[in-house]
Each structure stands twice: as C-alpha cells, then as structure tokens.
Amino acid sequence: MSIQEFHVSDSYIYNRSTPLRWIVSHIMRHKWFMFAYVIGVLITNGISVFIPVLTGEAFDVVLGNETASGRSLSTIALIILAIVLVRGCSDLGGQYAMEFIAKRLERDARDELYLNLLGKSQTWHNQQRVGDLMARANNDVRELNGMMMPGFSLLFDSMSALVIPIIVIGTLNWRLLLSPIIFVVLFVLALGRYMQQLGPVSGRMRMQFGKMNATVAETVSGIEVVKINVQEVQEGSKFGRTARLYRDYFVELGVVQAWYLPPLVLGLAITIGFLHGAYMLSQGTISVGDLVAYIGLLFLLRYPTFISTFTFALVEMGFASARRILELMLQETDIDENESGRSEPMEGALEFENVSFGYDDTLILKNISFKANPGETVAIVGQTGSGKSTLTKLVNRTYDVTEGRILIDGVDLREWQLNGLRTQISAIEQDIVMFSRDVAANIGFGVGRDVTHEQIVQAAKEAQAHDFIEQFKDGYHTQVGERGVTLSGGQRQRLAIARAILTDPRILILDDATSAIDSATEDRIQTAINRVLTGRTTLLITHRLSQIRRADRVIVLEDGKILDQGTHQELLDRCVLYQRIFGKKDEATSD
Amino acid sequence: MGFVMDGLQAEGYDRQYDDRTLVRRIGRYFRPKLPTMLFVSGMILLNATMDTVLPIVLSRSIDTLAADFTVQAASILAVTILAAGGLSWLFNYLRQAYTARAVSDVVLNLREDVFESILDRDMSFYDEHASGKIVSRVTGDTRDFTTVVTLTLNLMSQVLLVGFLLIVLFVVSWQLALLAMMIAPFIWATALAFRTIARRASGTNQRARASVNAHLQETLAGISVAKNFRQEQTIYDEFQEINEKAYSVNLREGFVYSSIFPSLILIAGIGSVIIVYFGGNRVLNGQVSIGDWFLFVQAIGIFWFPLTSIASFWSQFQLGLSAAERVFALMDSEPRVVQTDSRPLKTVKGEIEFKDVSFRYTEQEQVLEKFNLTIDAGETVALVGHTGAGKSSLGKLVSRFYEFQDGTLLIDGEDVRTFDLGDYRRQIGMVPQTPFLFSGTVRDNIRYSRPDATDSEVDTVAQSIGWGDWVNGLPNGLDTDVGERGSALSMGQRQLVALARVLHENPSVIILDEATASIDPVTEAQIQESLDVVLKDRTAIVIAHRLSTVREADRIIVLREGEIIEQGSHDGLMGQDGHYAELYNTYFRHQSADYVPEG
User: Fold this and answer.
1) Does any domain span residue B299?
2) Same-domain status, B98 and B213
C-alpha cells in the first residue's frame, strides 16, 4: 500500500499493475454477470446461424430435394420463429448483464479514484489543475462505461458473429471454408491499417476543434480590448487560420474514413464464395439449399465488417482512459498519516530553522529562520510570488520542507501525528472555499457533525458574521453557492474566520488577501481578524497597514529570502524596500 | 444513432425563420459547391443502384443454377457480383471523400461569416449574452450543422436503396412485397417509441451526472479545506451517496438503450419467418420463382437498418435546421451603435463635451438625463459615486461601446458620430477593471494595439512604467508566457501589463476603471508609479476606487443618479461636508494610512 493521507479500512483492493489487469480485476468483482453475458451472447449468435441454415433447408423442401430431417415448410417456419423469440430473450439478457458490468465499473472506478485523490497530499493536489482531475474523474471514468457498453459488448458480439457463421459453414462442407478464410485474413489486415491511419487523424481534428474553440472564447472574453484597439482584422485572421486548419483535418479524416477497405474485401469474398459454391453445386457436392445457406451465412459477415471500426475505437479509447486514471492513482504522494506520532495538545511555539523548500531544482524558499512565541503574531509582507503563501503552507505539512526543519513546541513537524497536527492548526487561505450547503454547515465544517447550533452562532458572532447571516432570508439555513446566495469576499472571509474559531486552533495561518470595497465592511473584517488571532500563534499574510502595525514581528520576503525582520517601526527606519512601500503612505497622511 | 437531443437554449436575439427561408439561405452557402454536390448526388445514386443490383443478381443466379448449371453462366454471374461490390465501394468512396471536401468548405465559410459578425456586434450584445453561448454558436452549432448535412446525404443513399429495392420487389410479386412491408410500421413505431423513452431517461441521467460533476468540482477545488480540517471522511460519505444514485439512474438509461436493437432485430426476425413461410408456399404454388423468393429473404435483412435511420431522421434534420437558425440569428442581430459619417481622423487633442446627453440601457432604467460635462484636453477627472450613479456609463459612451439616445457628444468640438469608428477608437485607450490578457507572451500583449511595433519599442514602454523593475519580477522577462487569459501572472502583474499596453497605444484619451482587488503592497506601489506615467498629458476619465488616485486627480466629479452634484478637489469637497464626504467615509476612509478599524 502506498503512502496515503487518508484511507477507508474496508475498501476493495484492485490490481493496479497494468490497465488490462486493472479492468479485469474490476470486472471480476461481477463475474456472475460476465458469465451471464457470455452465455447470452453465445446463445444469441449460436442459434442465429440456424436461420440461414433452416432457410436453405426450406429451399430444398420447396424444390423437392431430399433433406436429412424431412421437415415440412411450416415446421421449419415455426422453428425459425422459435429461434427468433429465444434469440430476442437471450440477446436482451446478455445486454442487460453487460449493462450491470459497465455501470458498476464506472461507479466503482470513480469511487476508487475519489478515495485515492482524498489520500493524496496537498503538495500533489497543488500541482494538479482541477480541470484535469475533473476530466479524469468524469470523462475518463465515463469512457470505461462506453468501453464495456457498447464497446466490448459489440466487439465480443461481432467477433462471435464472425466466428460462428464460419464454423457453421465448415459443417455444411469443409471445402466451403476457403472463401471465409481468405476474408478473415484480408479483413484483419485492412482493419488494422485503417485503425492505424484513423487514430492520429481524428486526434488531430479533435485537438484543432479545441483550439478553434479556445480562439473564439478568447476573442469573445477580450472583446472590449479588441474593439478599443481596433484589432478586429487581427482577430479575424487568427480565427481564419485555426478554422482553415480544422477544415483541412476534416477533409483528411473524410478521405481516411472513405478508404475503408473491409466492405470491398467482403464483396470479393462473396464472389469467390459464390463461384466456389456454384462449382461444388455443379459437381453435386452440395445442394441448392446448401448454396442458399452458404450465401446467407456469408452475408452475416456484413455485420462484423461494418461495426468493427466503431468497436475497436471505443475499446481503444476505454483503455487510454484506464491508463490515464491508473497513472493518476499510481502517482506517489509524500506525506502519510504517521499514526504513531505525537498528538499532545500544543503550546503554540513555532520555529523555522534554516528552512528551504522547492520543487525539482528551483527553490521557492531559501534559508528561512524565525521564531514565534506562543500567542504572538508574525506578519509577512512581500510581492506576489515571493513565497509568502508557500511559507505558511509548510506549517501544517501541506508541503514538507526540502531542507532545515520546522519545530512546534520544540518538536519537528514530521514527528507529529498528522491528525494531531492539523486539528490544532487552522488555515484561512487566500481563496476561501465554501461548499454548497447551508451557512451553519459551512461554519461547522471543521469539526465534523458534532457541534451545536449555539456554538455556531457564538462563533459567527465573534467573527462579525452573525449580522449579515441574520439578514439572509433563511438565516443560518441559507444555502451557499450556485443554488443559493452568492457571498462577497468579505462575507466569505468572516465565515472562514468563524469556521476557524470553532475549531479553536493553537496556531492560526491567515492569508488575508480580501479587499473590502467599503469602510464599514473593512471595520468588521479587521475586528474579526483581531478577535481570532488573540491568544493564538498567528502567521498573517496581509496587505493591511493597520494589521502590520499591530504585529509583534514583520518579515519582509523577497524572492524566497528574508530581506529583513523586525517591528514595523524598525523596518521603516532601516529597510529601503519597506520605505518605498509604506513610507509614501505615511507621508501622504501627514500632509 | 442520434436518438437523443438536448434542449435548445433560447437567447434574446433569437428569431424564427420559416423553413423555406432557412433552406434557401443554407442553399446559398452550397451554391459555389454546386458541381461537387451534383457529383456527390450522382455517386449516391450509383452507389444505391449497385447495392440494389447485388441481391438481385444473387437471386437470379439461384434461378439459373437451380435450373441448369453452366460454367459460363456462373462466371458471368460471378463477374457481375464482383463488379457490383467493387463499384458500390468505389462510388461510396468518391461520395464520402467529396462530401467531406464540399461540406468542410461550406462550414468554413459559414464560420468565418459568423465570426466576422460577432466582431461587429456592440458591447451591449456581449454584456447581455453569456460568452460561452456565443462561442458555442460559432463552433458547436456550425458543427451540428455539418453533421446534419452529412447525415442527410447518408439518408439519401439509404432511402434510394430502400426505394429501388421496393420497386423491384413490387414488380416481382406485389403480394409478397406487401407482406414484407408489414414489418416497416412496427420497426418505425418501435424506433420512435424508444426515442421518446431514451430522451427522457437520458435527461434524468444528465442531471444525475451533473450532480456528481458538481460534487467533484467542489470538493476537488476545495480539497485543502477538507485536508486542513481532516474532514475527508465526511465528504467521502457524501460522494458515495451521490455516486450510488448516479449509478442507478445510469443503469436505467442503459437498459433502455440496450433494449433498442434486440427489439428491432426481433421484429426483423419475425418478418423473415413470414417471408420464409408464405414465400415458400407461393413457390410451391408456382406463383413466384425460387430466385424471387430468395430475393425477398435477403431484402428483409437489408431493409430494417435503413428503416430505423429514416424513422429518426426527421428530428435530426430539425436539429440541424435549428442549429442553422441559431447561427443566422447571431449573424442578423442588429447593431445599435451607428455612425452617421466616417470622416478620417488623425489625432485628437482630447477635449470631451457631453451636451444634454440622455442614455439608458433599457427602457426601464434611465441612466443619464440631459447630462452636461466638459473635460479639458489633458485633464484627469476622477468619477466617484455609489454603484448605479452612472460612472461607468460615461466611459462606455466615450468609447462608443454604447449608443446614447439623445443629445450630442463632442470631441474637440466635433460630433463623435461623424468620425470613422476605427480611427476614433485608436485615439481612445482603456484599462478595464479586470485586465484581460491574450494567450502569448507579455511582449505580445503590450504590442497588441500596434502589432507592427519593434521589440525595442516594446522594451522602452515596459521600462518606462513602475520603475521598470516589475519586468525583472517576471520569470522570463517580457517573454514570459502569460498563460490562459493571463493566469500565469498575478493580478497586479496583469494590471501592469494592461497599463503598458495602453501606454504603447499612445492614445489621447484614457478611460481607466480602477481595480478593486487588493494587491500586495510592493506591486501596488509599482502600479501607482505607472499610473503617474500613463495619465500624464492625456485626457483621463478615471472611475476611481483608490484614495490616492482621487487625491491626485485634477478634478473630482461626484455623481448621484446620473447627475453631477458636486465637483472640485479632495480637500475642497471634504470641507463642504456633502455627498463626497459621505462617499469618503463609505469607500475611502479605510484606505488612509492612519486608519484604525471602528467598532
């Protein structure tokens, strides 16, 4: 078992060594459905071939030829009718069984992937784009369904529709196998060549469609800029280029699709078969009925001939999706639950000791050292991209340090139990996430479900959120998100503060990028911030001068290094960058 | 099979065209492709003929061979079969290849026309309609249209095949033909019934998928919160419930789809039984030949698939027509900004005068009523006021993004409606509240307004704002890729690029809608320094959100409900203790350096 931040003890273990084994291990959970499916298909195709055979027999009866069974025309018709009905049932049964497999595969794979994603560390998640993960969890998982139904189902069906008629032809007279065998060989060659050509062309076309879409989307979103700069012509020719390229791929694809040889191969096989059959009829080796049955059986090969392009493409797509999903699940993450680690209550003393951090070779943070005593506030100031947010994310092991160490109460973070660590540290991030549920549930999110309404209201009051919540139509039960109220940045932040107050952390991280448009909201936000950081060790990223002034220590970050640290006044006196930022402001007020 | 279609989304500019107008208009796009289309139609006809010939030849051969066999007769028949198969393939090849060519050219023309027409649309159009839907009309609807053209051609060949075969069957034996045709209404009805059921099932299924989607989107985007608070189990439980529900709905839809073909095959099978039995009896009675009987047996197998596609064709055809309708509606929507003349314009000094201007977005809300304001060339005015006071409307009128209903707008004393719109807009620079960057490098974006500018010109512009040190903060300097819509840059950096772009354009008039987002203090200082450079010696209308901008403006215009109620300098207006003082306390108080939160 790989390293996970989160796991569920009773989850099913699948074989993830290769895409094929993975899919098989999923299917094997439902082997009885698979069994039912195979039986259904075999019955369906097995009895289908008797229809042309019996038709041939009917011809012999009508022509007055001798038949082995001596059945009358109406008996034969009744038998065919029975076959048609039984085939209808077995066909439906087989299809339904496959539906179960396909839909369960989709469900289980999504579940497996989701659980896996929950277990990945935040470092890993930060390197992903949500759009990509969504594409895997949604479209790729859905392709798996399409791969089984209709993909695999048609494939198996058409392959048995290819093999069974040929076997029956063999039982009519083994010499008649000549033409079908030629057909199979040529068919496989032609189909293989076709698939090889089709893949890259249709891939290119799909990609170009995406590009064309992106081009239009960009122009439409930037239309104001286009118009004011009078660049309609430039945009028009940009679009013209992508649209024309798409046209070229479309034509290319059309030609490849038109050059589909298998029907021609089938035509050839029927001709050869007919000649061969006619010759054998003239020799008296077979009857007219045999010939009719033979031609009828050859015509059954039309189905696999025409359907194969479609089925192979579906199965191939499904495998590509399985590969992408597996790739995602097998990526290693670096942080595990460390269940035996330290979990005692924290005092809140925080220390960075020569900490460096980076991905690959580039260091984002270099040699950071500072200390915060329990209850102190450290403000971090710097340009976007200077590493402020990254620095705070090391504290709750969202990321692990590359060099140096971080100590809480004198103990290295990596010796703390992940649960113990994270439940005692709260982070209010720059982009505040609210879930589509009611306000109360959002505030209570951090402590799970065991929290009383009174506690939630109390926290909201402290976070200056109670008043605006009460103004919503449904108060604390107002839905948040798409189907509910849209919250302003200031409101979200105060809800996040309420959420943090409820978890009562010893260490608080506040990435405060919210800007209030009006002064009254600003008053509320700042009051809420002052309330939440009292009595807690706090790392505060802020643009607010009044917060910076209150901090016990200010760290100035530049390019991942600490340029200087001290109190606001000390820095104003000695740090040039600091003076450029804040000096002018202080001047501006004094005039 | 396209059994299912999505609900159509109506837009304000949508209109109804009658089918004949639509078809005629589509026809106009196909006219240049007429020779190709005629050729394609010929191929379809030939292809269908060949496909009909094959079963007939086979049935004749049974007659011949049953009666008396000669090598010569057999070889002639074999050659005919081979020729019919080979030619059928060849005609089909030519048909598909040339269809692709013709259709793709037609769609390309259509797309270019739509794209050109959306570039001509007013800003009001873009404000009223979601951008995603406009995009899908340019790319998606035109693609649906292609599908339908291809589909129609396919159908044509199938209808021809069925038609030819039917004629032959009726000639051979009308009684048997009628018997064979008995299955047609059943196949037809079954196909249509499944279409209705499947559409309903897939509607439910789409909703179920959408809720799984929404859950994934939300929890993956917000996973850090779940991790910070160790609430993974809570969201996993929720996920399982939603996933399970989606499964059962999905399964139900699957059953519907799975039932379609077995049912159709069942009906076709019953048809075969009928033909075998009654046909055989007619052969015994000597009414039809054995070969004719064989032809009927084959025909049942050939018939049923085209019948299902014919049954589902009409709705798909309608789908294509409505896609075309949506595209044409977009092309035909009327512009509202109208120039009365197109006088060329080299440069303007930048004096702006609103004279009794009245303006409203819709009939209900009058924004400006007989509005008067003169802005001197080179003057910076800051507009302040509550939301809806009309601040941004002034900028939209000056940039000719919206049309005013009454009064005149004079630039350097001349009517703005008489200028060539392109020439005029080149004199206007604009910095929107949320800066928009095009994909490409920072350099491409600065150069955007004048694509022919040299690299060194761009460098000079970039260096001249914000101390020039902001460029060093970009990973690859000016060659940094800005990512999708500028996502690779911070909000502050995007603003700096937008300012550089405007400086590069070197307009006489600037409309600046200040950003409200909070920017880190270092970048904030760089932006302030850049604004000093960009606004210098230009007429500027600033929709102000920053205290420092308001303080430094030449004149502050205080707006309320579309009227100027106060104007002057910051200190002077504060002294009056009027609406400006109230606005200051509402919007700017917390931006002053000595701010301490109240309450």
Assistant:
1) no
2) no
